[in-house]
Specification:
Elements: H1 10-19, H2 31-36, H3 39-46, H4 54-72, H5 75-78, H6 81-89, H7 113-121, H8 127-136, H9 139-148, H10 153-166
Helix pairs in contact: 3-6, 7-8, 9-10
Length: 167
């Protein structure tokens, strides 16, 4: 199988731009590069630095959470990739850091239709994060996600029934 080529190099371009707080980086990308921007992946990497300085590690986790993660799951925010980028860029400290990926939990229990929908839309989110998203958002936000994923009218009706049971 051929290796997937990404339009933006995560480690040579994107993360260094976020670290530098380069607020013009996203605006200067080509349309193809903009399409390949995955805010959730960038957020996961940006929140973790491998440094012995615990204050720096704490800073990154807190800043990414406060500046980006808090509103990242809002369905309106999902429509605006540049805004996602900008909220992440606020977390930078002005110099390149070494970021690493922290793998999420591998096993998942069987989900209801709503949790299946959310895990399809947010594949890297764990069960607790999906539940938090569900608790924090309105029915129209969740239905909006289903529409963006191409769910048909019948599937959306089933989701609405499931939402009524769960709320």
């Amino acid at each position: 199988m051929a290796e997937k080529k990404f339009k933006i190099d995560m480690f040579k371009e994107l993360l260094p731009a976020l670290d530098r707080r380069d607020f013009k980086f996203y605006a200067n990308l080509t349309d193809e590069q903009k399409k390949s921007f995955a805010g959730i992946v960038a957020m996961r990497y940006l929140s973790v630095v491998s440094d012995k300085n615990l204050k720096l590690c704490e800073y990154h986790i807190n800043m990414v959470n406060e500046a980006a993660n808090r509103h990242f799951w809002n369905s309106e925010m999902q429509k605006h990739k540049e805004l996602q980028y900008l909220t992440l860029a606020v977390s930078g400290i002005g110099e390149k850091q070494h970021h690493q990926w922290i793998k999420g939990p591998v096993t998942r229990k069987k989900k209801n239709k709503i949790m299946q929908l959310l895990s399809e839309f947010y594949p890297t989110a764990n069960d607790a994060e999906l539940q938090m998203f569900f608790d924090m958002n309105k029915e129209e936000d969740i239905i909006g996600i289903a529409k963006r994923l191409g769910y048909q009218d019948e599937q959306i009706r089933d989701l609405k029934k499931e939402l009524k049971k769960l709320r």
